[in-house]
Structures are given as C-alpha cells and as structure tokens.
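can u do me a favor
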C-alpha cells in the first residue's frame, strides 16, 4: 500500500531529503495496490477496494492523494485504461468510469459477460482502445477457458456495447502506427481494422460479419403482425468482391420467452439476400425483398461471409400489417 516516487528527473534518487522531491505516501483503504493509469493532470491509483487521485502539489508534499471512490473493485492490473480524458475499467461485477467522479457504466451485456467469465483467470484480463471508432475493448477468458478467447466492447460516444470471440494477448492503439496492433497465441503481431479479409496466418480468409438485434415488438406486442417486405438500405462501398451480398433474416416469436417459432415461417420465407447490382454512377443494390412471416416479436439479423466483402447497414424498413390477437404459426 506504499506509493513511492523518485526525485524530479531522476530514476536513482529515492531517499527523501530537503534538497530533493523524492517521497512516499501510504494509502489507507484496501490491502494492496492493483493498478494505476496516468490521466491528463493526475495519476489514478487503484487498490483492491478504492480509487485514489494523485496530483502534483509541489514542495514540500510534492504529491497529494485524494480518495475519489470507495468500495470499488477492479479485475486486474491491466483492466483500466484512459480514453478521451476518461478512465474506464472493469470491476469484478460491473464496469466503471472516472472523469472527476467515479460512476457505474450502464451495461446492457452485464449479466451475459459476468456469467461467462472464468474468475480464476481474471488476472489475464486486459483493456485496449480503438480511438478511431471511440471504442474500449476488454479481453477475457470465457467460463470454460484458461486462455483469452472473448471480448466485450464499449463505444463511449454512442453509449452502446457489443461482444464477440477472439484470442488476443496484447494490444496497442494506433497512436504511433496507422492501425491498432495486437498479438495472438501464434506469436504473431496482427493489424486490427485493416483490410477486408482475415490474413492472420498470411492467407486471405473470408470473415463472418453479422449483427443481430435484441427482440422488438410488432404492433406494440399486443397482437400478431404479418411481415411481407423489407427495404434493406445496405451499401457495399469499397468491397472488392465481384458480387458482394448479405443475408437478412427476420426471426419471429409468439411472445417474449416463447422461443423462436418452429417452423419460423409457414408457407413463406424469413430469409432474403441483398446483392449489389451496380456501382456507377451511384451504387445500386437490391431495393426490396419479399418474405412471409408472423409473430408478436422479431429478431433482425444481417450477415455476410465473402472474400473482399464490406457492407454498411443504414435504416432498413419493415412492412408490417395487423394479423389478429391470437393464433399459431
């Protein structure tokens, strides 16, 4: 619990004296120091129960410390990181941020993430940033793994969360390089956010890209609704594939908790393909697709898996009609 510092502009003078600025402070809250992060005009120090702010105050004290958060946890020595002037970190049961005061981050994935972490391997957890997309990544070992295989991402500009599976052992943002660089379990350094294919092993492989929504109501969820058309609003700009395409899927449910309908769409289809048809003078793609399904709730999914595929989803529109209050698919 002892924080020490050397004399100014010296890495060898650690003994406090009237002629130097070496010194130390013993912290009072917690049983051990876990991590520290250098912020703009302070150093944030984490113990296993508290958060301290260290600020330079000049002689004779040199550094002053203040408790900014108590009864606070942190997963590991690398679970905290600075992004856009704010310190973010992963606690043992929630996420936090510090920007003058400590507060809890709203997290839509909290239950999913913490029920899937191998707590015995918590010291492997580390954080990284992708400044270009306003993201903070935390890498962790899933429940049945002893190596890092999963991640959760927080977009601090849009205040949204997303997650996935990927094995990484180190990460550095694009501060000195054009792209973030990570390390994997094959002892390979990998450019992140570069190119359209997976070239980790030196061979281009298609990447499976997809987004799936949570459940959303049709007609306020109090009656069945019939869906027969989607206006996709997808672009494929900068794709190098000859005929880039994605698959849109609408998964119907009778109600929350009922599970997916089986079969999902009776007498019709709940899957449609959207393909680029022209690139000049303005990119053109499939303008509308026809499907047939009914339910009270839907899950929307879009996915693609092609070499050279890049797609961007805009604001798709779904044509919905009332279809009664009761019934079976």
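np, heres the sequence
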């Amino acid at each position: 619990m002892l924080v020490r510092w050397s004399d100014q502009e010296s890495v060898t003078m650690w003994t406090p004296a009237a002629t130097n600025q070496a010194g130390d402070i013993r912290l009072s809250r917690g049983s051990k120091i876990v991590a520290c992060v250098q912020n703009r005009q302070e150093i944030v120090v984490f113990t296993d129960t508290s958060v301290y702010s260290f600020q330079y105050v000049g002689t004779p004290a040199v550094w002053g410390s203040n408790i900014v958060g108590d009864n606070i946890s942190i997963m590991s020595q690398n679970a905290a990181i600075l992004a856009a002037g704010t310190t973010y970190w992963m606690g043992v049961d929630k996420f936090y941020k510090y920007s003058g005061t400590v507060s809890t981050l709203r997290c839509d994935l909290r239950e999913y993430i913490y029920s899937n972490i191998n707590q015995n391997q918590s010291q492997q957890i580390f954080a990284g940033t992708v400044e270009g997309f306003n993201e903070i990544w935390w890498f962790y070992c899933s429940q049945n793994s002893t190596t890092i295989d999963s991640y959760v991402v927080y977009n601090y500009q849009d205040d949204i969360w997303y997650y996935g599976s990927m094995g990484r052992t180190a990460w550095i943002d694009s501060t000195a390089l054009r792209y973030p660089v990570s390390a994997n379990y094959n002892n390979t350094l990998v450019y992140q956010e570069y190119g359209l294919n997976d070239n980790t092993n030196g061979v281009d492989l298609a990447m499976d890209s997809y987004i799936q929504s949570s459940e959303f109501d049709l007609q306020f969820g109090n009656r069945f609704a019939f869906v027969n058309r989607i206006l996709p609003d997808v672009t494929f700009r900068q794709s190098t594939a000859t005929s880039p395409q994605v698959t849109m899927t609408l998964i119907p449910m009778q109600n929350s908790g009922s599970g997916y309908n089986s079969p999902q769409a009776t007498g019709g289809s709940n899957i449609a393909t959207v393909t680029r048809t022209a690139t000049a003078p303005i990119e053109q793609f499939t303008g509308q697709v026809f499907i047939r399904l009914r339910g009270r709730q839907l899950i929307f999914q879009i996915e693609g898996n092609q070499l050279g595929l890049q797609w961007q989803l805009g604001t798709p529109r779904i044509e919905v009609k009332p279809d009664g209050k009761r019934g079976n698919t």
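The CA atoms of residues 86 and 99 lie 5 Å apart. hope that helps!!
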